[in-house]
């Protein structure tokens, strides 16, 4: 426990992968964490891990595509812990593949779970963050949006680029309220990456060979700990930025 003692966080999509890693890292740094996700058993397991490490956590089942669920989730988090200081928008449902093979339904699912959900959560959390004198929002984006070859990443990158735009706008509009808003673009050992690696081993090997640090990041120790630093006091002058957490692979420029 440490730099985030007394702070309260809400992390979406925290039942596994990067979301779980961020939730664990925030809790180890002292924050109480509202752990949200679609699958109850997964978020309960994340909470169990947090509590076994001595932290505080509360599971909230949530479908980020449902606006009523967003409002209910934020209210439940605030009601449980008495306020809110940190929001991490991690949950996302979308598809990879050629544009001509992408259905309207799949494209819209990416938009609803990505920028639309991010907007709804930020809007719902704003008054609670402001009421406590400010706070931090971290939105997850992707380096796929700046790949030299964007083939098969179109729908995914479009949704995540919209999140980057929302991040910058919120940072500009809400700085006066003491709210900092940043984005991270992670590359970590998530279940989604593992599934892709198994399905496309040759493409994956070529992809991993372009990481200057030569390894895949840890969801908790590389991504989660970076988020702890981002929302902590040492980076209090940083807002509106996109931080690549990918071992140096992407160049946002």
Structure, described:
With 253 residues, the chain is an alpha/beta fold. Helix content is 47%, strand content 15%. The protein has helices at residues 17-28, 40-52, 67-81, 104-131, 154-174, 191-199, 201-208, 219-231, and strands at 8-11, 32-37, 57-61, 86-89, 135-140, 179-186, 242-245. The chain is globular and about 50 Å long. The protein starts with 7 loop residues before the first strand and ends in an 8-residue tail after the last strand.
Shape: globular
Distance between the termini: 35 Å
Number of helices: 8
Structural class: alpha/beta
Uncertain regions: pLDDT < 50 for 5+ in a row?
A: none
Q: Please list the strands of the largest sheet in the order they lie side by side.
A: 3-2-1-4-5-6-7
Based on DSSP secondary structure assignment, what is the total number of beta strands? 7
Indicate the proportion of strand residues.
5-15%
Largest sheet report: 7 strands, parallel
The arrangement of helices and strands along the chain is EHEHEHEHEHEHHHE
What share of the residues lie within helices?
Answer: 40-55%
Mean pLDDT: 96
Question: Rounded to an integer, what's the Rg over CA atoms?
Answer: 17 Å
Short overview:
The protein is α/β, with parallel strands linked by helices and 253 residues long. It is built from 8 helices and 7 strands.
Please write out the topology.
Layout: E1 8-11, H1 17-28, E2 32-37, H2 40-52, E3 57-61, H3 67-81, E4 86-89, H4 104-131, E5 135-140, H5 154-174, E6 179-186, H6 191-199, H7 201-208, H8 219-231, E7 242-245
Parallel strand pairs: 1-2, 1-4, 2-3, 4-5, 5-6, 6-7
């Amino acid at each position: 426990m440490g730099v985030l003692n007394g702070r309260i966080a809400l992390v979406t999509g925290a039942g596994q992968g990067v979301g779980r890693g961020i939730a664990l890292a925030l809790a180890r740094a002292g924050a109480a964490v509202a752990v949200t996700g679609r699958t109850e058993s997964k978020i309960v397991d994340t909470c169990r891990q947090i509590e076994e490490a001595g932290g505080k956590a509360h599971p909230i089942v949530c479908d980020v595509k449902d606006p009523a669920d967003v409002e209910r989730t934020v209210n439940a988090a605030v009601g449980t812990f008495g306020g809110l200081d940190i929001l991490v928008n991690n949950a996302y449902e979308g598809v990879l593949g050629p544009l001509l093979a992408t259905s309207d339904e799949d494209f819209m699912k990416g938009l609803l779970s990505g920028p639309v959900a991010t907007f709804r959560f930020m809007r719902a959390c704003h008054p609670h963050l402001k009421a406590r004198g400010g706070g931090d929002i971290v939105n997850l984006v992707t380096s796929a949006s700046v790949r030299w070859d964007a083939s098969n990443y179109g729908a995914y990158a479009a949704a995540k680029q919209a999140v980057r735009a929302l991040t910058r706008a919120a940072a500009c509009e809400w700085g006066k309220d003491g709210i900092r808003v940043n984005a991270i673009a992670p590359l970590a050992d998530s279940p989604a990456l593992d599934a892709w690696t198994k399905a496309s081993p040759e493409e994956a090997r070529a992809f991993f060979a372009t990481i200057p640090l030569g390894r895949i990041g840890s969801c908790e120790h590389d991504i989660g700990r970076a988020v702890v630093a981002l929302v902590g006091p040492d980076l209090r002058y940083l807002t509106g930025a996109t931080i690549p957490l990918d071992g140096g692979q992407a160049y946002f420029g």
